[in-house]
Design goal:
Chain lengths: 523, 373
């Protein structure tokens, strides 16, 4: 081939081959996006994604989660390497998966088909599959999945993902008897990673997960055989999240197009009132009048400029009812409080839940806790634990909205909160769509609606902290006062007895007692 | 004739004094013991021990025209160990009293700095020496005795020289007597000297000198013989023990006192402290010598004797203007000299006399000055 370059004239010979790639292939090529960029991060992400899937599987069916994770070294471990091969095995007691869906659940990267929204931990619903895919490409071994829905049988599959076709390839299938009616799922496969480096983040992740899921039992055995047990402290679970339709305010052109293609409705009025959140006949009528669209029009016949018009109208029509948050599953004051007590063992705690609110058509609820003392170390600032949809956010704290509010939005002096106090703030946001700023689920973007709610919640809990601190100071002051009397009064007695030349030192106990009684009254 | 009168006076006073020195010590011990008794009884009655004493706040420091010195007014303060802010000072006060009692009983002396450190051994530590000094002043106020009576002395820096025979009362030296011309540098006015009895003197006056150089000059030029004077060097503001010695020499021996300081407002302040006492010691009556006379240097002397002088600084002028409002400076030499200073705007140190030869001050200035007073 000649190396001549063209200057905008003449025919450009195009040797690029254009072809469609499967979703599995796409993620194989862009695995950084899902958090599988290096051996350390990948191991952490694999544990995280699998654990979150398991928690979701339990919670949607109101099963108290009991999850075991085991990580063990495989093969040659002598050489010092960047990454080693590990076997990861995670077992949950979730609902289990019907046998016919098992291969595709773990071996095919799918996009949602129902166009409904629900508060779940994962954002793309592909994290678990990504972990298996990563294991397959680093170790070239298949994954074992065992699952049962609690009937008489359990099914064991040995599967491999055909990346190019995005299809599961079942290498082996066994059926076991399940006399004890066990339900749940076991995932077992090999992957490369570096546990030594990932350990701090893995353990911190598990600890914080235990904090925000106080009803879950989580057991983790690391490659050196150490057992980490995070026990539940309650058997109360929040109401599982419910599915909800998209709110018109949060729709984009592509979503509308997909809804149309899946819809069986033949006129716009039924279409609007069937597929959208909080849109009934009346609202649909008013909206269509506002948007100047005929009620009888068949949605399937809309052209693309008309769809764009509808989306624009949806954004500008101000009379849609705000999204209803009853579909959300916040932890609630008691559960979040129990989790904080369990993991931080604080001296004082207060939790507030804000009323539901919405941003861009997505409902959300902010829950904030504040805790003092116990296992919380004193630090120059306030320690922040961030959670979204019941998962911990560990990295990029500096960019997070809660950190911004704490550092810039609040005059802590007003709340008598000085640096170097052992204070932690726990913020939890749950929503059908958490506005993460980047693809990695690590920090929340500065949406003004969310910022406002977080700020209000932090101010409320800080008020309680102020009351606690001033009470604590008062007690401390009182203790010091009594100590001072107890130290000096005997000396006054001793010196004055000596000076007066007397033998018997006066009894000062009644005096000291009178101080104490007074002290108790003050408490 | 005058000499005779002085002698007669002095012999009479000596007797009184010898009694009072012994008595004074007994009184001190008794007072300390009864102070302990008061607190002890309060405790026995189930009360929180408390102490009442005249307030030493500036608003309660008044100038007494009759006594010609600062005194404390009628305002009293109560320190109760029931009060969280007072429990520590009360404890420290009782400790200081019991420590002073032990000191006196054993005939030992101590310094202010010593007290600060000794307290630590009894676990009643002071935060700093200022605090311990303050507690000692409290004890003086409560009991009406100066700390020297409790055998607590400041650092010595003042000297005395002249024909005065003293008899020690300190343990180990009791009955030993000494003439104060024995040592040509003068003797330090320390605890032993302060507590000794005055036996006899041929001197008929006391000259108090601010500066060491002038003190030495007067010894070398035999001024003590020529003027029959006991010389005392204050080294700046006189320590309280020095002020007490001056008062005792004046009261017990009936000797007139002449104060010879730099010709500037600060020299005048030294003289007035000896005569009228200081506001800081308003709670004590036995430090001032109201009969003492300020001999110089006057502002008018600077002109009269053509002494080398320097210009008054802003701070000197401010001080002079403040002095005009001070009741202690209302009488004759003060008032006119302050005005003179403010007009002339010159000041002069004692050393300036050397300008006219080493013996000028003895031959010319002092005879003229003493004659006129």
């Amino acid at each position: 081939m000649s190396t001549k370059t063209t200057r905008g004239k003449g025919k450009v010979s195009n040797n690029e081959e254009y072809r469609e790639i499967s979703p599995a292939d796409f993620f194989y090529r862009n695995r950084d996006l899902a958090g599988f960029s290096n051996p350390t991060r990948s191991l952490y992400s694999a544990i995280r994604e699998l654990l979150e899937n398991s928690l979701d599987a339990c919670e949607l069916y109101k099963i108290l989660p009991n999850i075991h994770i085991r990580l063990s070294l495989e093969g040659d471990t002598e050489d010092v390497k960047d990454s080693y091969t590990y076997r990861i095995r995670i077992m949950d007691n979730g609902s289990g998966i019907p046998s016919e869906h098992i291969p595709s659940s773990f071996g095919q990267i799918l996009f949602g088909s129902k166009y409904r929204l629900r508060q779940v931990r994962g954002t793309f619903g592909l994290g678990g599959k990504m972990a298996i895919l990563y294991g397959q490409i680093t170790t070239n071994t298949p994954a074992t999945i065992i699952s049962s829905v609690g009937d008489g049988k359990s099914y064991e599959f040995l599967i491999r993902i055909d990346i190019l076709k995005n299809k599961p390839e079942v290498l082996n299938k066994k059926v076991h008897k399940n006399k004890i009616a066990w339900h749940g799922t076991i995932v077992d496969f090999l992957l490369d990673g570096n546990y030594v480096r990932a350990m701090p983040r893995v353990l911190e992740y598990l600890r914080q997960t235990a904090l925000v899921n106080p009803y879950a039992d989580i057991t983790f055995i690391d490659p050196s055989g150490r057992l980490y047990k995070f026990e539940s402290v309650t058997s109360v679970m929040p109401e599982p999240p419910k599915e909800t339709l998209p709110h018109p305010y949060g729709c984009d052109v592509e979503l509308i197009r997909r809804i149309i293609s899946a819809s069986k409705c033949t006129d716009m009025l039924t279409f609007m009132s069937t597929h959208f959140h909080r849109v009934g006949k009346k609202t649909a009528q008013r909206f269509l009048t506002y948007a100047k669209i005929k009620k009888k029009m068949n949605p399937h016949k809309l052209n693309s400029s008309e769809i764009v018009h509808i989306v624009q109208m949806m954004k500008t029509y101000g009379d849609f009812l705000p999204p209803d948050a009853s579909c959300l599953s916040p932890l609630g004051k008691d559960l979040l409080g129990a989790g904080i007590k369990k993991e931080l063992n604080p001296e004082f705690i207060h939790v507030e839940q804000r009323k539901p609110s919405a941003y861009s058509g997505f409902p959300f609820i902010v829950e904030v806790g504040i805790a003092y003392g116990g296992d919380i170390p004193a630090s120059s600032g306030i320690i922040l634990y961030r959670f979204a949809n019941k998962i911990p956010l560990i990295y990029d704290e500096a960019s997070d909205i809660s950190r911004k509010v704490i550092n810039e939005g609040i005059n802590w002096r007003y709340y008598k909160i000085a640096p170097n106090l052992p204070i932690a703030i726990i913020s939890h946001i749950c929503s059908t769509k958490v506005p993460y700023k980047t693809v990695g689920k690590e920090f929340i973007a500065d949406r003004p609606e969310i910022e406002r709610e977080i700020k209000a919640a932090i101010k409320t809990v800080a008020r309680y902290m102020r009351i606690f601190l001033s009470r604590k100071n008062r007690i401390e002051h009182e203790r010091k006062r009594i100590d001072l009397f107890a130290k000096y009064l005997p000396k006054v007695a001793k010196f004055s007895t000596e000076l007066a030349g007397k033998k018997k030192t006066p009894d000062i106990e009644p005096l000291l007692r009178s101080i104490r009684r007074y002290g108790k009254k003050e408490d | 004739m005058a000499k005779k009168r002085i002698k007669r006076q002095s012999s009479r006073k000596k007797r009184i004094k010898r009694q009072s020195m012994k008595k004074r010590k007994e009184m001190t011990l008794k007072k300390l013991r009864s102070f302990g008794g008061v607190l002890y009884n309060q405790l026995n009655k189930g009360e929180f021990p408390w102490i009442e004493m005249p307030s030493r706040s500036t608003s309660n420091i008044l100038y007494d025209d009759r006594l010609k010195q600062y005194i404390l007014g009628k305002k009293h303060v109560k320190r109760s160990s029931r009060n969280i802010r007072h429990i520590r000072p009360v404890t420290q006060l009782v400790w200081t009293a019991s420590f002073a009692y032990t000191l006196n009983k054993q005939g030992k002396t101590s310094t202010l700095r010593d007290i600060f450190y000794s307290a630590q051994a009894f676990d009643v530590p002071f935060k700093n020496q200022q605090e311990s000094d303050n507690i000692i002043t409290d004890l003086e106020t409560v009991l009406g005795f100066a700390r020297e009576d409790f055998n607590i002395f400041p650092e010595e820096r003042s000297q005395i020289f002249g024909d005065l025979t003293i008899e020690y009362t300190v343990p180990g030296y009791e009955g030993n007597s000494l003439n104060l011309t024995t040592h040509p540098d003068g003797l330090a006015i320390g605890p032993a000297l302060t507590t000794s009895d005055f036996k006899s003197t041929k001197a008929n006056k006391i000259i108090v000198i601010e500066k060491g150089a002038m003190f030495t000059r007067l010894i070398e030029e035999k001024a003590f013989k020529k003027f029959k004077a006991i010389l005392i060097h204050t080294a700046g503001q006189p320590p309280r023990s020095t002020r007490r010695i001056i008062r005792r020499l004046n009261k017990e021996l009936g000797l007139p006192v002449y104060i010879f300081c730099d010709g500037d407002p600060w020299g005048m302040a030294i003289a007035i402290t000896i005569i009228c006492g200081s506001a800081n010691a308003a709670h004590l009556k036995e430090l001032a010598t109201p009969e003492a006379k300020w001999m110089g240097l006057y502002s008018s002397d600077i002109q009269k004797y053509k002494l080398p002088s320097t210009k008054l600084k802003v701070i000197d002028l401010k001080r002079l203007r403040d002095m005009r409002k001070d009741p202690r400076y209302i009488a004759k030499p003060w008032k006119t000299q302050i005005t003179h200073f403010l007009q002339n705007k010159r000041k002069c140190e004692l050393e300036a006399f050397s300008r006219y030869g080493l013996d000028y001050v003895v031959k010319k200035y002092l005879p003229e000055k003493l004659n006129r007073l």
